[in-house]
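Data card: per-record layout.
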Amino acid sequence: MKGKPSHAFSTKCYKSDIKPIWCPGCGDFGVLASITRALAILQVPPEEVAVVSGIGCSSRIPAYLNAYGFHGVHGRALPLATGLKLARPELTVLVAGGDGDGFAIGGNHFLHACRRNADITYIVMDNQVYGMTKGQASPTTEPDWDLSQLTPGGPGMNPFLPLLLALGSGANFLARASSSDPGGAADILVEAIRHPGFSFVQILSPCLTFQPEQRKWKKMVRPAPVKATTDPVRAAKRLMTDDNFFVGVLYQGERDPYEESSEEVTCKLDSLESEFQLPGLL
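The structure for this 282-residue chain is written out next.
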């Protein structure tokens, strides 16, 4: 952020004129409200914000924001955002996605983005289902979920634990929020954006179309009983005993963020060619 703007930016300043087309009751409405509130709290000029997404219901978010946006390829939002941040470090770069986009086809990029630790904020709207493509089980779906004709009997596999995976891969900030509390989620996003390095925020965002039982999430979420820690070992112990419904900041790492080298690198073509020349050949 380049200092305080000459005038205050309200949440309305960060909303585009495009009306969201999510299903009634979708938690992503609350996440969108949280993002605009967080940006208004931070007072980042809209032209200094870039939002990158992949594919899925949640990945529509760039269109609904008055900021630079990039709707990328399925699962590839994080490398796009990393490249953008390294090329334009003055921008506030947010990444929006879902549990399918981020942890299935994008799973490998997720692990390495955590490890690389560029200064970006990854917001994952986790509804434990592929909502856009008619309700298949996702990487975070419970093994016995048997309410979809596309996954009879349930997936039968243990779900991913995104926060624990992110911690083990080197993410520098971990938090969980609920879309049913846009104000609380906004406060968490403010901390995530301010924290240097790779920040990962898992937002429980119900899909009432394919997971109507998720209505009960609103009553199940509750504040984490302990404050955030800077110790990854202590954070891992907490996450291993977490029931996935504690919300709040869970880990604040102290790693320096990855940045592009400021040293100018020059190399002549002749020197490159000589390295690939085989002995005895002209």
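Known properties of this structure: Residues 1-6 have pLDDT under 50 and may be disordered. The radius of gyration is 20 Å.

See the next section for split statistics.
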